[in-house]
Amino acid sequence: MNSIDSVTLEVDDPTAAARFHSDAFGLDGDRVRVRASTEPTGGFRGFTLSLITSQPGDVDALHRAALDAGATQLKPAEKSLWGYGGVVQAPDGTVWQLATSSKKNTGPVTRTVDEIVLLIGVEDVKATKQFYVGRGLTVGKSFGGRYVEFASDPGTVKLSLYKRRALAKVAGVSADGTGSHRVVLSSPVGPFTDPDGFVWEAPGQ
């Protein structure tokens, strides 16, 4: 199956960003990587990264750790119709959603991340879905022109598409943004640039 092997965030200070990922989320640089960039960017970069956990207590643990590591809270962790979650912005500017579909704790609280999801905000969900299908990705879930989720292999990063303004609203930020997305996706289906300017690379590039 064609999946995203890893996501590389382009940041001003790679050392500080990697330390944040480790301290806040326990990420080891396998699926979420960093590299230096001076590309201009401003406002909403058009994507969020979601860390999916098993229960609300795990979301709270990640949320607290992120704030302790220097993140800014965009939305507090709280119950919603679909589950429980909150949103933070890392010091490097990346927006992280911390979420679970469960509304009750069923075991000891940990900071274990079950899944990493890259949500990219696009202008035309249907058109971008067809673009990716044409490059070998398989649709897992699709809700018309509102949301698409692609199937992914275990241990990879799941890709989802959302309307840009809707994603910004979920993240708690303005949809306005300029310049580079400052994110690069590594996958066997690369290299290419999608209709919304997101760059894909082949592994090892």
UniProtKB/TrEMBL annotation:
Protein name: Glyoxalase
Highest taxon in the source lineage: Bacteria
Gene3D superfamilies: 2,3-Dihydroxybiphenyl 1,2-Dioxygenase, domain 1 (3.10.180.10)
